[in-house]
Amino acid sequence: MATVSVRIDQELFEKAAIMAKALNRTTPKQIEHWAKIGEMMEDNPDLPYEFVKQAIIAKAEKEAGKSEAYSFD
């Protein structure tokens, strides 16, 4: 994946660094995570945050091969 350098506010970077450490991510990955959530929320303004968060988790589980078929009983 190609990367680029960007300038961001120091305070935002520091908040991301704290969250990244708490969630075992790198600071750039934390900022990426926030950007992904922001993009999804803007594209789907009627969806609640928790739904968007669970969609991201479900996608990651599927990519990791941890998804299970749902049975409609």
UniProtKB/TrEMBL annotation:
UniProt xrefs under InterPro entries: ParD-like
This protein's name: ParD-like antitoxin of type II bacterial toxin-antitoxin system
